[in-house]
Amino acid sequence: MLPAEDLLSLVVAAFAFAPGLAIGSFLNVVVARVPLHRSIVSPGSACMNCGHELAWYDNVPLVSWLVLRGRCRSCSASIAARYPAVELGTALLVAGCFLKFGITGAAFVAAFFCITLVAVSGRTSSITSFRTASSCRRPCSCSLPTPRCT
Ligand SMILES: [Zn+2]
Question: Which residues are placed with Cβ below 5 angstroms of ligand 1, an ion?
Answer without folding.
Answer: 47, 49-50, 52, 72, 74-75, 77
